[in-house]
């Protein structure tokens, strides 16, 4: 449908827990489509609704040839194995740090039509499910980093062009301008 602007670190919507979806309607299907289009355009492994300014519990994913979406997701770890590896975020563009996550997870939720869905993921898909569900809870992966890495990450963010405003991005509104230029 439409590629939406991605909200960047510092935007309060990224720290606000999202609301549970109760209406499985055309608006939800449009949101899922916008999330997919935006995720593909940005080259992400996943994208949560708050990252495009919508405070609803929905995310999309595209990892290792497995693509889909989850509405009102809940995940649990399968076993005790963990993975540590580089993790990034479309809301913190161009930066990555090692983050510890569960290696294998199972996620349950619904699709955009209100039908139950269960996804089992390992490695990258497991990481994406955990990362995107964190977004729905107002948690950023920076919160999952050890103290030393988090300090280094914050220092790198403070000097990033997108954070300092040194390279402004001009975005066109997706809304009609009603005759205004």
UniProtKB/TrEMBL annotation:
CDD domains (UniProt xref): Pep_deformylase (cd00487)
EC identifiers of the protein: 3.5.1.88
Cofactor(s) in the UniProt record: Fe(2+)
Binding site for Fe cation: 89, 131, 135
Positions in coiled-coil regions: none
InterPro entries found in the cross-reference section: Peptide_deformylase (IPR023635), Peptide_deformylase_sf (IPR036821)
Catalytic activity: N-terminal N-formyl-L-methionyl-[peptide] + H2O = N-terminal L-methionyl-[peptide] + formate
MF-aspect GO terms: peptide deformylase activity
Active site: 132
Family: Belongs to the polypeptide deformylase family.
Function: Removes the formyl group from the N-terminal Met of newly synthesized proteins. Requires at least a dipeptide for an efficient rate of reaction. N-terminal L-methionine is a prerequisite for activity but the enzyme has broad specificity at other positions.
Database matches in PANTHER family: PEPTIDE DEFORMYLASE, PEPTIDE DEFORMYLASE, MITOCHONDRIAL
Protein known as: Peptide deformylase
Provenance organism: Actinokineospora guangxiensis
